[in-house]
C-alpha cells in the first residue's frame, strides 16, 4: 500500500486550468523580486562598500568586473561611468544584476558578509547603474574600423550575444543566427518571470544590438538550415553558443500520461504569456533539484496551485539550486522533499499521482500536473567533438575543429549561469579576433 506524503494531499481537485487568481493577485505574485533602488537607496548601499584594494568580490565574479570601482562611481554620483565599468566586462550586466546568484558569488565573498553577515548589495547596485545608463538610450561603445572579417555566431543567448557584441566592437561583421522566434536564449525563455519583469530581456538585446554590425536572423536552426561546414565556407570563423536545447526524459511507467509536462516548456510559456493565460493544476509535482526545478515550482504556486511539491532524488546537499533559491521556494509555500526517486506516474487518462521510492518506502503524492526538470542536454549531431554531453573546448573556447569556437552551456566549462556564459562568449571573441588578425 502506498503511503501518502503529509502536507501534499490534494483536497478538491479541479484539473489543469488557467485563470485561478485575480489580475491583481497575478500582478502582485509576479512583481519584481528585487525592486530597483532609488538614488538615495543606491547612495546608502554604495557607502557600505570598503572599496577593498584586493577585493575578493572581483575574484568571485566570473566576468571580473571591478566591483569596488563601479560602486565608488555610484557613491560619487556618476552612475553612467559606473555602468561603463560594468559593461566593459559584462555587456549583459543589467540581466546578470537581476538573475546572478550573487549570494554564492560576489556577495558571499564580500568582506561585509564575513564580518557582519550582511554583504554590500552588489547585484542591486549593478542594476541601478546599468538601468540608469540604458535609460539614456545611447550605446556606450563604438565599433572599431572595419576589418573585413565576418563571423557566424550561432545562438542568440548570453554567450552568443556577448561574443557578437565584442566582435562588433573589434570591427568585425557578425551574422547572429538563432532558432527561436526571438533572441535572448535563456534570458528570454528560461528565467522565472518575477526575476526579470517588464520585457527587460528584449529591451536589453535591442540596446546591445545598437552598436551596429550585427545582422540578426531568427527562426534558422542548426542542422536544418546550416551546418558547421556550410558556415565555414561562408565565414572566417564560427562561434557556437547553442545552449542545451534538448531535455532529459524519465523512463518510468505512466510518464506519457497527459498532465506530464517539461518544466522548461512551462517556464517558456509563462515568459511569453500573461500569467492568467497559463494553465496550472491544483496539485503540482516538480521533479528535479536545480534552478529550473525551483523556478517551475515557485511559479506554479504563484499561478494559484494549491499544493506544490518539489521532489529531488538525492540529499539536500546535492541540490544544484542555491540555498537562497531553496529558501525562496519554501517561503512561497513549496513543499520540498529529498531522497525521493520517482518510479511511476498513475492515472486513468490523466496524471493523478506520482509514486516514489523514498528511502526504501513506496510513497504516493496526488498530482494533476507533473513538471520534469531533470536536466538538459546537447544534440551532438553535426557538432564538433563532444565529451560528457558538451562540446570539448580548450582555453578561450577553441574546439577541435579549426576556426570554430564554442561557449556557454553547450561547452565544457559552462555551468548553467548567465554570467559564466557571458564571460565565455566575450573571451572567445577576443581569441577569435587575435586569431583572425595575426
Commentary on this structure:
The protein has 438 residues and is of the alpha/beta class. Helices cover 35% and strands 16% of the residues. The chain has helices spanning 23-29, 39-46, 56-60, 67-75, 79-89, 93-99, 106-109, 111-116, 122-135, 158-169, 186-189, 200-209, 228-232, 263-271, 291-302, 323-331, 418-437, and strands at 3-4, 150-154, 173-178, 214-218, 237-240, 246-247, 260-262, 283-287, 307-311, 335-337, 340-346, 353-358, 361-366, 369-372, 376-377, 386-387, 390-391, 404-406. The strands form five sheets. It has a five-stranded parallel beta sheet. A five-stranded parallel beta sheet has the order 7-14-8-9-10. A hairpin with a 2-residue loop joins strand 16 and strand 17 (390-391).
Supply the key terms.
438 residues, alpha/beta, FAD/NAD(P)-binding domain, Fumarate Reductase Iron-sulfur Protein, Chain B, domain 2, 3 domains, five-stranded parallel β-sheet, 35% helix, globular
Amino acid at each position: 500500500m502506498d503511503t501518502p506524503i503529509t502536507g501534499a494531499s490534494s483536497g478538491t481537485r479541479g484539473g489543469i486550468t488557467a485563470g485561478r487568481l485575480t489580475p491583481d493577485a497575478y500582478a502582485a505574485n509576479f512583481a519584481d523580486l528585487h525592486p530597483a533602488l532609488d538614488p538615495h537607496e543606491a547612495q546608502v548601499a554604495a557607502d557600505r562598500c570598503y572599496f577593498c584594494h584586493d577585493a575578493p568580490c572581483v575574484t568571485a565574479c566570473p566576468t571580473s568586473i571591478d566591483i569596488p570601482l563601479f560602486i565608488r562611481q555610484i557613491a560619487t554620483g556618476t552612475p553612467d561611468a559606473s555602468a561603463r565599468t560594468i559593461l566593459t566586462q559584462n555587456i549583459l550586466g543589467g540581466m546578470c544584476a537581476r538573475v546572478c546568484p550573487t549570494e554564492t558569488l560576489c556577495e558571499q565573498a564580500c568582506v561585509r558578509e564575513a564580518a557582519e553577515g550582511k554583504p554590500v548589495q552588489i547585484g542591486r547596485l549593478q542594476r541601478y547603474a546599468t538601468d540608469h545608463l540604458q535609460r539614456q538610450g545611447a550605446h556606450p561603445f563604438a565599433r572599431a574600423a572595419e576589418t573585413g572579417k565576418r563571423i557566424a555566431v550561432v545562438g542568440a543567448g548570453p554567450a552568443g550575444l556577448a561574443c557578437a557584441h565584442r566582435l562588433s566592437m573589434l570591427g568585425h561583421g557578425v551574422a547572429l543566427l538563432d532558432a527561436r522566434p526571438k533572441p535572448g536564449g535563456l534570458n528570454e525563455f528560461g528565467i522565472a518571470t518575477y526575476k526579470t519583469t517588464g520585457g527587460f530581456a528584449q529591451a536589453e538585446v535591442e540596446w546591445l544590438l545598437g552598436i551596429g554590425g550585427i545582422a540578426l536572423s531568427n527562426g534558422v536552426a542548426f542542422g536544418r538550415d546550416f551546418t558547421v561546414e556550410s558556415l565555414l565556407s561562408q565565414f572566417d570563423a564560427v562561434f557556437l553558443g547553442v545552449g542545451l536545447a534538448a531535455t532529459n526524459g524519465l523512463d518510468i511507467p505512466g510518464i506519457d500520461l497527459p498532465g506530464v509536462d517539461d518544466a522548461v516548456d512551462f517556464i517558456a510559456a509563462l515568459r511569453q504569456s500573461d500569467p492568467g493565460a497559463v494553465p496550472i493544476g491544483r496539485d503540482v509535482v516538480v521533479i528535479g533539484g536545480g534552478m529550473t526545478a525551483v523556478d517551475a515550482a515557485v511559479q506554479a504556486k504563484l499561478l494559484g496551485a494549491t499544493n506544490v511539491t518539489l521532489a529531488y532524488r538525492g540529499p539536500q546537499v546535492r541540490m544544484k539550486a542555491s540555498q537562497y533559491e531553496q529558501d525562496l521556494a519554501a517561503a512561497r509555500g513549496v513543499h520540498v522533499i529529498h531522497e525521493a526517486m520517482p518510479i511511476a506516474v498513475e492515472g486513468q487518462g490523466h496524471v493523478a499521482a506520482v509514486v516514489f521510492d523514498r528511502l526504501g518506502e513506496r510513497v504516493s503524492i496526488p498530482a494533476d500536473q507533473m513538471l520534469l526538470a531533470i536536466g538538459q542536454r546537447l544534440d551532438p549531431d553535426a557538432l564538433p567533438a563532444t565529451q560528457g554531453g558538451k562540446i570539448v573546448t580548450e582555453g578561450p573556447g577553441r574546439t577541435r575543429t579549426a576556426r570554430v569556437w564554442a561557449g556557454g552551456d553547450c561547452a565544457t566549462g559552462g555551468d548553467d549561469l548567465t554570467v559564466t556564459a557571458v564571460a565565455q562568449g566575450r573571451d572567445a571573441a577576443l581569441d577569435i579576433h587575435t586569431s583572425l588578425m595575426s
